[in-house]
Specification:
Helix content is 59%, strand content 12%. The chain has a 5-stranded parallel beta sheet. The protein has 147 residues and is an alpha/beta fold. The protein has 6 helices and 5 strands, in the order βααβααβααββ. α1 packs across α2 and α3 packs antiparallel against α4. It folds into 2 domains: 81 residues, no CATH class; 54 residues, no CATH class.
């Protein structure tokens, strides 16, 4: 099984990389994820997570933007981005309908991350499980990478 990494994992990683003054972001990310999930765990991110990470670059202050961009581009260079394709769209529609039927929601982006994971048969790795614990049938692993 593999893990679709939620944005919260990278927020933790970026903070830890900054706190430890890691010189190589890609190496730090790889080392941290191997420690949190195991060396043989396949990982990827959803296309919406890539968008959220890039959004963080654009929203960063001038003081932090360059450093954040280096970190995000390192992540995008080593962690495969899984597409939101028709299979993911079908999973998304089903999850959305199931959640709406019981009066719950987890937010559009988290639904897309969950649907991406379901569509490839993986779990979601996150540092904030409450974002995903309402999604029926989704396996979740709590990860506090870099700590």
């Amino acid at each position: 099984m593999g893990s679709v990494l939620d944005t919260t994992v990278f927020i933790d990683l970026e903070r830890a990389a900054r706190a430890t003054a890691a010189s190589d972001s890609a190496e730090f990310v790889g080392w941290s994820l191997a420690g949190a999930l195991g060396r043989d765990e396949e990982v990827g991110i959803s296309a919406v997570t890539a968008s959220e990470l890039l959004h963080g670059v654009h929203r960063a202050s001038r003081q932090y933007r360059a450093r954040r961009e280096v970190f995000v581009e390192a992540v995008l260079g080593v962690v495969p981005v899984l597409p939101f394709d028709l299979l993911a769209a079908r999973a998304h529609a089903r999850l959305w309908a199931e959640l709406a039927a019981v009066g719950l929601d987890v937010g559009a982006h988290d639904r897309m991350v969950a649907a991406t994971a379901v569509s490839v048969g993986w779990r979601v790795a996150t540092s904030n499980i409450r974002h995903f614990d309402r999604v029926p049938g989704l396996e979740i692993v709590e990860v506090h990478a870099g700590t």
